[in-house]
Amino acid sequence: MRSLTETEIRASFVNCSKGEVKRMDMPPDLAERPWDDLDFLGWRDPGAPERACLVADLDGRLLGLALRSSSGAARGFTARSMCSLCVTTHTGGGVALMTARRTGEAGRQNNTVGQYLCTDLACSLYVRGKKRTAAGRGLDETLSLDAKIARIRRNLTAFVGRVTA
């Protein structure tokens, strides 16, 4: 993914109002992000932990999604959950159901799309082995790194497609 500016990020959101976008807290570390290793930019709002944002570059078009995280109780250390984007397993609260309001008339009627995602939205870094989960070793897969990256991009495109359909 290419490096993004705050202006580009704010202009990319498709499922929330201009006022909501204006009030969003941007990630404080934009300049330090490992852009070459990212398939999308994702962050949690430090002021409101139930809010998260995801910005993807799909076919040269930036699409930003405002997300809400479930506030369910944290699971035990031995319980494992899997992110549906990167297929990374986590223990405890490492995966959460995140919902995105749909665009258009469906969104105005409060229809949402949900997906189980890594709570820190660092899916790209888990796939590339740049970050490890508390669970330690991930699944034993025979897929190459390129195939894993292609899978996360397919899953991301499908999720964004369900939100914008």
Provide an overview of this structure:
- There is one protein chain.
- By secondary structure, the protein is an alpha+beta fold.
- It contains 5 helices and 7 strands.
- It has helices at 6-11, 18-23, 104-108, 123-127, 145-164, and strands spanning 40-44, 51-58, 61-69, 80-82, 89-91, 95-101, 112-118.
- A 5-stranded antiparallel beta sheet has the order 1-2-3-6-7.
- The longest helix has 20 residues, at 145-164.
- The protein is globular.
Strand order of the largest sheet: 1-2-3-6-7
The description of the largest β-sheet is:
5 strands, antiparallel
Mean pLDDT: 90
List low-confidence stretches. none
Q: In terms of structural class, how would the helical and strand content be classed? A: alpha+beta
Rg measurement, Å: 15 Å
Strand content: 25-35%
Percent helix, as a range, is: 25-40%
N/C terminus separation = 24 Å
Number of helices: 5
Coarse shape = globular
Task: Name the helix and strand elements from N-terminus to C-terminus, one letter apiece.
Answer: HHEEEEEEHEHH
